Amino acid sequence: MKKLPKTSYLVFVFIIVLAMKFAYKYLDTQDLNFILKPVDTLVSLILNSESEYSIDLGYVHKKNQFYIDKSCSGFNFMLISFSLLSYLFIQHIQKNTKILYSIFFSLILSYLLTIPTNVSRIVFAVFFQHHIKGMFPSSFGAQIHEALGIINYLIILYLIYIATLYLFTRWDKIFNIKKIEL
Amino acid sequence: MKQATHPKWQLFTNSLPILILLILFKSQYNIIQSLLSEFEKSLWFSFGTALVIIGLVSFFFSIYLILINKRFTLIPSLFTLFIYITFLFIYFNFAEDFIPFSVPNWMINDSLLLYVGTFLMPTLMHSLFIIILHFTPEDKTYTNWFNFVSAFTIPLLFYIFFQVILPFWNFPSSDFSQHLGVIIIIVMILVFLFFLIRGILILSMKKSKFWSENDLLWKIPITIILPIIGLIVNKGTNMIPENVFGNFNHFWFFVLALMNGILLSIPDFKSHKLRLLHFFFKSLTFSFTLYFFIVFLPFLPFSIFIIIIIGLGFLMLTPLVLMLIHSYALSKDYQFLRQFYHKQIVQLVFIGGLILIPSVIFINFRLQKQTLLNALNHLEYSDFNVETKLNSNRLTHVLAELENHKEQRNFNFGSTNTPYLSSLYNWLVLDNLTLSNTKINKLKTVFLDAPKIGTGEIPNTNINDRTLISFAEAKSTYDVNQDTWITWVDLQIENTSENNFAEFSTKIHIPDGCWIGDYYLYVGDKKEFGLLTEKKAALWIYTQIRNENRDPGLLYYLNKNEVVLKVFPLSAKETRKTGIQFIHKEPLNLQINPFKLQMGNVDEQVNTPNFEDENLVYLSTHFKKSLDKTNRKPYLHFIVDCSKNAPDFSNLIREFSKNKEPLIENAKVSFVNYNTEETSFRDWESTYLSTNKKGGFFADRAIKKALSEQIIQPKHQYPIFILLTNEWFNGVFDQDYSNFTSGVPEINHFYYLKSKDSIHAISFNNTSLVIPIVNQDTIFQNEKVLVYQTKELKKVYLPDNNEPSIIFKKPHQNTHKSEFPVQKWESGLKAYSFWFTQIIHPNSKNEDWLNGVKMSFENHILNPYTSFIVVENEAQKAALLQKQKKILSGNKNFGTDDEMERMSEPRIEIFMLILGLIWILKNYIKKSKTIR
Questions:
Q1: B905 vs A71: CB contact, 8 Å cut-off?
Q2: Dihedrals φ, ψ of A135, to 5°?
Q3: Cα separation of B664 and B643, whole Å?
Q4: Nearest by CB to A76, which of B432, B899, B908?
Q5: Rounded to an integer, what distance in angstroms lies between the CA atom of residue B590 and that of residue B508?
Q6: How far apart are CA A97 and CA A93, in angstroms?
Q7: Are B582 and B486 in contact (CB under 8 A)?
Q8: Could you say which of B343, B672, B711, B882 would form a disulfide bridge with B743 (CB–CB 3.0 to 4.6 Å)?
Q9: Contact B233/B240 with Cβ under 8 angstroms?
Q10: Interface residues of chain A, partner chain B, Cβ below 8 Å
């Protein structure tokens, strides 16, 4: 089979991301239960806080005064980490079929990574809400919440990036494959 | 000093201030836009766009310079200076047209004109400084007298011109000559500042031999003497009003000025350790220098005129000069220390020093907020059984600081507040709202036993003497689906006087279980329906509009059974139409003076069922008639003043209780300072001995505590309150206790005992009504009340008043919308039980108050948290909604949004933008490393 230029795979990934983002618009909290449910279970476990499910609000944690709904699903993070992982795989792998498998693999991996990332983000945010928020003017609460989320995402994306590169070098050493500059 | 030409400074001095300026202007524009004509709107739009374009050009140019690693040089600086001066010149020419006279003053931020000066001056000064640096290379020596002589020639020239030439000059008064005049003044100011700053720069670079050998000769006057004189002069002299530039009278300003001067005058140490320490302290006071530099920046161009007029303009230049000397000293230290320490360490020392004072201020403000919140919560929102511990010295200090920062929040001439710091204070301590004088005085009276001061409210003489209701009519319909009566009461209000600005105001008694669902007022020929809004925001807007003589109507709860209706203005002999919609379960009588109206048709509905849920019971008038009557036994409840200066009341208690055995069998005694300690009559003497006399006499809390106990746990006895204090008006009371008296239908008064034989009755509905009692026995006569037994077998006592009653069973927990019944009347009842829970179980949770407001909005039923208001136009609506947003996002005491928080993830576009920036930065660093 003729080798396709890498750009075409990147475009393919881009289209998948766009389609997912488009679909996200029409999904509601219930449709996103495949991410929300595990996230809520872990958050409840870590914070020792029971949640109630409400159709309009999602998972409501009365004790800690917060709720997890569609906008908190971590779907955006899943899209970004999927883009990053696919990009790294496309750059590293040479064979056509393997690239296609790796894109599919990236999708599953990004879903699995989104859950702990989102849990850590929410746990930090709750911690912030209880201990640090009072030090800032109340009108800045939302901005600080978002800033904390961004910092959390950046750190984890960077770790994913480093870890993937490290695994590539290990992989190449074992299988004696020539290293590709990223 | 070369560092100053790095383009990053352009981002700080240009892009950031412009961004802030744009935000401030946008928020002002949003409020007044509906009052602007097409011309004024185009003016706002043109200036806004111009500012955005020059801001963006400057921003991208700075980024470009950073990326290609180039400096901000002479040509761009000249260009910036020219463009911004032109902008300012045109702006001030049109300044009057931005806001037309038709926009009322309360909608306009006072500092709007000053903003442009404050936020554009940094970029002007930065450009000027780069021009000066260009003409002052560091590798040359200079004779400095030329600069100073040139600088001071300019004020002299102005002086000669104004004193000698101007009187003899016959100006052709044309626009052209005026503009020319302004341009000449601007050029002269620039030249003046150019030579002055250059002179100081050369002095601090020690390029001039004499001055470098005798640097204390200029350092001591400039860094120590002038700043201190400046602070003293600002306190006020014969020629200069007090605090012209703001309140800098705090002793720390003087201490820091002296410390800063000494630190800058001390010669540089040879030892690098001592030098590092010296550097740290200089960084520490740099925040002081920076603060004054920023405060005085917008006034810099005017200093030249003050030099001409009174010569004191030099003092206004001190912050600028100090800033130059201080920055140069720090940059020299930095260069020296780099030889001994790692760059990052020196930078860390600098940042550590710089943020120390601001951090102390920040922490201090936060602690003050905590103290203030504790004290305020105790006044209104803390559970009656919880004691508050408070350090009165600290509260005295906090209140003094609060009054210092109060009055004008914005930077004005001759104001009592401190520029920027007061804004910071209002932001950090008060969430940008204000604490009324009434509340400050109440805090002082309750905690510090300060004498009571009148509220400062001018009694409204308009009420009812010139305006009256000339016509009233009730139209009822029965909603079969909802099983509810809906009655529209239409009113005509007439101003019988010749006064053109009469205000109509009346109280309307509404029975239990009757809600208000809508309100209207005719404005001209148009029937305007009321906007349901948060109560404080509506009251604020009403007062503002009243001051402007526009057309508002207002309806709000005074207590659970009384609403106030206000309409303003009524011109001479004018009649206006207004109306209120009532929602009620059964036919009711409504008394609106002088009319008595029947709401609902008695013939259509004879029997109304009661309503009961877990929180309360609604008993209909008809059902109440079938209840048994009973006589309860009274007992005495002494409320004893234990404030700081209170005398001993032991003898009075003993004497008064003599021969009153039946009344003292179950008697109680409350010992009251700012906390309340309640005990049975048997143990009063020992408790009295152990109670500390402190703070003020907060009788209000003791009375509310005792009355709410009567509601929560009704007994077959009821209390008669006897206050023991030397002067009753020294105590802190509410104006009205009607919300609390439903548990004791037998009594309408509490009593103040001055001596054994002198007793006065004070009305629960109006505590300013004090009546002497001649025959003490009348106090203890009791009347019959109705008795009702709930499902839980609790006996409740009700007034026999031919009206329905609501019985409180159990506190109402937080309610979410989905729990609300579909029936509007029942939703009103739920909201009522929620509100009433807050009244008898006050707590400091903000969300309850916020939920109360939300419930009212969701059901569109008025409740004690909200008001109906009719405003005249869209601008007033915008101002009202903005005020409401501010109040809903602030702490209720001041006028924190702790509602349930949504754990949203960051927006993808913002996250991608940040990722993109990191990517660019990473590539840039990689590239610059490769080049090196």
A1: yes
A2: -80, -10
A3: 25
A4: B908
A5: 8
A6: 10
A7: yes
A8: B711
A9: yes
A10: 21, 54, 56, 60, 65-69, 71-77, 79-80, 118, 121-122, 125-126, 129, 134-135, 137-139, 141, 145-146, 149-150, 153-154, 157
Tokens of B44: 């706002």
Q: What span, in angstroms and rounded, lies between the C-alpha atoms of B924 and B932?
A: 12
For A137-171, what is each residue's pLDDT tens digit? 555 677 788 888 898 999 999 999 989 988 888 87
Phi then psi for residue B323, to 5 deg, are -60, -45
Of B406, B399, B408, B474, the closest CA to residue B444 belongs to B399
User: Letter for the amino acid at B319?
Assistant: P
Look at the alpha carbons of B791, B792, B798, B803 in this order and tell me if their dihedral is positive or negative: negative
Q: What's the DSSP call for residue B905?
A: P
- Quick one: closest CA in A to B425, which residue? A137
Q: Element (H or E) spanning B62, and its range?
A: helix B38-67
Which parts of B339-471 fold into alpha helices (H)? 343-380, 392-405, 421-428, 437-448
Q: What is the 3-state secondary structure (H, E, C) of chain A?
A: CCCCCHHHHHHHHHHHHHHHHHHHHCCCHHHHHHHHHHHHHHHHHHHCCCCEEECCCEEEECCCCEEECHHHCCHHHHHHHHHHHHHHHHHHCCCHHHHHHHHHHHHHHHHHHHHHHHHHHHHHHHHHHHHCHHHCCHHHHHHHHHHHHHHHHHHHHHHHHHHHHHHHHHHHHHHCCCCCCC
Whether A138 sits inside 8 A of B908 (CB atoms) is no
Concatenate the DSSP letters of all residues of B131-182 into one string: HHHHTS-TTS---THHHHHHHHHHHHHHHHIIIIIHHH------HHHHHHHH
Q: How far is B431 from chain A (nearest CA, A)?
A: 6
Q: Over chain B (932 residues), what is each successive 10-residue block's mean pLDDT?
A: 80 88 80 77 88 90 84 89 88 78 66 73 89 84 79 80 70 69 81 86 69 76 88 77 79 93 92 94 95 83 70 77 89 92 89 94 89 84 77 84 64 60 79 74 86 52 67 90 89 86 88 92 84 79 66 86 88 89 91 88 74 86 88 91 89 86 87 89 88 88 90 89 85 88 89 86 87 81 85 86 86 58 81 85 68 80 88 74 68 46 81 84 77 62
3-class DSSP assignment, residue B859: helix
Strand B588-592 and strand B901-902: pairing? unpaired
Return the amino acid letter for B520: Y
Q: In this complex, do A80 and B912 lie within 8 Å of one another by their Cβ atoms?
A: yes
What does DSSP assign to residue B519? E
Place of tokens 């040139």: B150
B475: closest CA of chain A, how far (Å): 39
Tokens coding B897 = 């949004």
Residue B932, classed as helix, strand or coil, is: coil
Query: Reading across the β-sheet that carries B866-870, which strands appear in turn?
Result: B502-509, B562-570, B553-559, B866-870, B531-534
> Do residues B727 and B856 touch, judged by C-beta distance below 8 A?
no
Q: Which of B431, B847, B915 sits opposite A137 (nearest CB)?
A: B431
Count CB pairs under 8 A between chains A and B: 86
Q: What is the pTM of this model?
A: 0.64
Asked whether the beta carbons of residue B911 and residue A69 sit closer than 8 angstroms, the reply is no
Interface residue B898 vs chain A (CB under 8 A): yes
Of the candidates B789, B791, B760, which has an alpha carbon nearest to the alpha carbon of residue B776? B760
Task: Evaluate whether B640 touches B724 at the Cβ level (below 8 Å).
Answer: yes
ipTM: 0.84
- A114 contacts A68 by C-beta, under 8 angstroms: no
* A20, A22, A25, A26: CA torsion to nearest 10: -90
Buried b (16+ CB within 10 A) or exposed e, A49-74: eebebeeebbbbbeebbbbbbbbbbb
